[in-house]
Amino acid sequence: MGRKKSKSKSEGAAKSNGAPHATTATATRSSGHATPRFTEMVPVRFEPAMLDEVRRRADADGRSVSAWIRRAVEAELRRDFIA
Q: Please, which residues have CB within 8 angstroms of residue 1's CB and are 6 or more apart in sequence?
């Protein structure tokens, strides 16, 4: 079977207008597990000391830097919705 086509902006993918939107869709691996498929790469710059700390914490959590940053952003967005 072929890969599923990712969503276009007109089909509900995230827009870059500053508002928080879900930015993932799921794909199913041959193993049957759902995995996130991200819609857009966002370059972010950090000061060297902050990036070193992010790398250290990501390593301690057993995550990639990208996964660690996504988790931190998701936690911050959830915090705003709870308050």
A: none
